[in-house]
Design brief:
Distance between the termini: 17 Å
Number of helices: 12
Shape: globular
Strand order of the largest sheet: 1-2
Number of domains: 1
């Protein structure tokens, strides 16, 4: 489930980049993801599992924190980071989250963490560094972008930890519903619906790169972002936490930037250098290493 989610997240990144090329802002795209996913989960559960929609009053504070911190902030902070940093650098910093999860499990919760997990983390981070090449002389890092990326890593770690706790008392789909519901409410307050550029939704936009000669309506791209890139992917991640630990989920999810680089090469014609190809292999080795730590 985590492998599938990582691949779909990577594909969703390129689709989101195409959508952003149409003129919609990062805040508006995040708002569409949150509100659209909340409505979609509500409709599905109302038909298939209406009892799971019930929520106790004492659950609301946890669900609100999960939705705003673990869902809304992860997306928004990442968009701020990629607006000021190269996407690869932002991803590298955000994927410090598994290390934060492992450190929290070891030193705050006093849970045993196998040495092999630390080795897998090290391999994954080295591989990500090779992919984004942060030592490049052309690299100029923005201070606010770095802070946003670090905050995104912290928010992602909080999301994983809260989701791991949340699935103990609630099924993954209703947990995702209420997470996106509170995230959507947050974004509706920050960016009222009447400010959304509804006139752009029906326009056609170029698919960019190798598919630049083809066009698709923005509403179709947004539908993919909501249904596949958000509802399906987040459900897979939360469901996976019922079977594997948060630390391992975070490590396996590092497959995302590797696949994202491959998709960007095939779709957007973004070339991969030898160091990036080597880095992809190292990340995959780290993932396999983590899987053998059971």
């Amino acid at each position: 489930m985590v492998w599938t989610a990582a691949i779909l997240f990577a594909l969703n990144g390129t689709v989101s980049k195409v959508a952003l090329g149409s003129g919609i802002s990062t805040v508006e795209l995040t708002q569409v993801r949150s509100v659209g996913a909340a409505v979609g989960f509500a409709l599905v559960l109302a038909v298939l599992r209406p009892r799971s929609l019930r929520v106790r009053l004492r659950e609301l504070p946890f669900l609100a924190v999960f939705g705003v911190t673990g869902v809304a902030f992860v997306q928004w902070l990442y968009f701020v980071a990629i607006d000021r940093l190269p996407v690869g650098i932002a991803l590298l910093i955000q994927y410090l989250a598994p290390l934060l999860v492992a450190l929290f499990a070891r030193y705050a919760m006093h849970e045993p963490v196998r040495r092999r997990i630390w080795g897998a983390l090290a391999l994954a981070l080295v591989g990500l560094a090779l992919i984004v090449e942060p030592w490049s002389e052309e690299l100029a890092l923005d201070g606010l972008g770095l802070l946003a990326a670090l905050a995104a890593a912290a928010a992602y770690a909080v999301y994983i930890l809260l989701a791991e706790r949340g699935v103990r008392g609630r099924d993954p789909f209703s947990l995702s519903l209420y997470g996106f519901l509170f995230a959507g409410l947050f974004w509706l307050v920050v960016h009222p619906v009447w400010r959304f550029p509804a006139d752009l939704v029906g326009e056609r936009t170029s698919l960019l790169g190798n598919l630049g000669g083809h066009h698709a309506p923005l509403w179709l791209l947004l539908a993919f972002v909501v249904a596949v890139g958000t509802m399906l992917t987040f459900s897979l991640i939360v469901s996976a936490l019922q079977h594997v630990s948060a630390t391992r989920v975070g490590i396996v999810a590092m497959l995302e930037p590797v696949v994202a680089a491959l998709i960007a090469w095939l779709w957007l014609a973004e070339a991969l250098g030898p160091a990036q190809l080597l880095g992809g292999g190292v990340v995959l080795a780290g993932i396999v290493f983590a899987q053998t730590a059971r």
